[in-house]
Structures are given as structure tokens and as C-alpha cells.
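== Folding the chain ==

***
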Amino acid sequence: QVYVVESGGGLVQPGGSLRLSCVASGTIFLDNTMGWYRQPPGKQREVVALITTGGAPDYGDSVKGRFTISRGNVNTVYLQMNSLKPEDTAVYYCSHKTSKGDYWGQGTQVTVSS
């Protein structure tokens, strides 16, 4: 079993920054993809950023140039969010994808509002 836990969400003003963290624990596969998805109110879940254990990051079009994904180690991933906009408001979910299955955290709320 794999457990995924996110942290770092909150309320921030437009133009501000937040850093999300995610840790996967339990049975960890060295070859995996970790990343962030988000679900805005009333909308479907969408990809924010993904990163493999050895590959380059990949970003959704709406966050390119503002968000940066990085890995601390094989089971830790971060999302640095700068120049936040009200449309970035959503529940952000961390994912840990392996050959044995996809695992998700419970989500952390990010609200961008003045």
C-alpha cells in the first residue's frame, strides 16, 4: 500500500506565492511519476505538473512560467507556485504513479483571493 499526503495549501492574495509539498510512504517503487493535479470548483480535475524519477518536468499550459515542480527524493515532490491568480483556486491533489497502480492524496485547498 502507498500513502500520499499533501501539505502547504492556504489562502493567498493574487500575485502571491505558495509552496506545496507531497510525501509518499509505504511500498515505494523507485521508478515512478509524481505530480500535481487540481480541481477548480465546478470543474473537472486537470493536470498541473508531472515529473518522473529521472526525467524532465511537464506542465499544464495554464501554469507554465509560473509554477515549478521539483523532487526531493524518490518519494517527495514539491510545487512552487508564483504569480498566483484567482483562477488557480482549486483543490490540489498529489499523485504517485507506478507500474502497480496510481495513488492519490486527499488534496489541499489553495484559494487565491484579495
Summary: The chain is about 0% helix and 55% strand. The mean pLDDT is 94.
